[in-house]
User: What shape does this take?
Amino acid sequence: MVGKLEITPVETAAERREFIEFQWEVYRDDPYWVPPLLSEREEFLDPQRHPFHQHAKVRYFVARRDGKIVGRIAGIVNYAHNQHWNDKVGFFGLYEVLQDREASDALLETVESFLRDEGMDTARGPASFSTNEEVGLLVDGWDGPPRALMTYNPRYYVDYIEGYGYTKAMDLLAYMVDLRKLHGLADGSLPPEQAPEINPKVFRVTRKVQERMNITVRPMNMRDFDAEAARFKEIYNAAWAKNWGFVPLTEAELEHEIGALKAFIDPHTIFFAEKNGRPVGAMLPLPDLNQPLLKAYPRPGVPEWWTIAKLLYWWKIRRSVTIIRAYAGGVIEEYRGRGVDAVLFMETLLGSLRRGYKWGEISWVLENNTPMRQTAINFGGKLYRTYRLYDKKV
Assistant: This one.
């Protein structure tokens, strides 16, 4: 590439703004990229405003050629992750680069040096910032925009990262369910045994579980929102504790994430499974806000109030959200493998059908989570996208 390459740290609010706005350069001609709200990204990167930074050290870097940004990256030491797993894994994230392999190599080396100086022995990524946010590189399935809180990237990132010595640590899988074929389940016009692509065993299992185990399922109570959020956090942290890469949510992170999602969730699709009044499982799907967000298309130089007005138009008035994503949830260990997950999935499916969604994404699912992969298939899910986390010894 022509021009002198220089890697510089990002230290000021103005430099963070440059760091954020560089994404619009990378994806200038990509019809599938969903741009974020600039205010949301500014908060995310700000160590004084986002709670992840309370238990982590994050450093941002940009690559410049003759003063022009051609790439960016973040180096991340997540102390909560290393405490939970008793390891020395650091992370790279927020990775974006033009078609400039030299810049990519230099950015990755800069982060590796930072992680070594912090006592880490492994670099893992991309992760922005942890499994509680957006993680993984899209390596298969560039056939449309990403769903809410899922990642997206150019194809050449795969070659750049693997070419610098990174190898697969874990694949994260996404399944798509065609809900259009199942709407008769909600009103009873489609007999369960005739539901296309759903394993008939699912209906038998859900009935038996509820009858024999006295499992009840109830929708989320929005009038008791704070308490419901606390119940969900307890289930989520317990259910995911042993899953690869998981980091427990802190109280501050829960408050921040729930606060951010409260305006966008569809409470008619959120359910708790209970045993004698005790919550033992929960399912939190997310309507795909990326659909109206892509139509609103946030961008530098456009007042954000105008972008939000367009977002609300496409979301609330034109109701362009046709996809719902099975985003988070789980069953506590003592009730796992006993069909409670199927009961929750069934209620979420029926709730989504009643709300008129046409597609459902089940994501992401760890490739080594065989029971969850089978559940996705049992409910008619088709594997359609793969995301990857990479490791490299540093």
The domain at 176-387 is CATH 3.40.630.30 (Aminopeptidase). The longest helix spans residues 101-117.
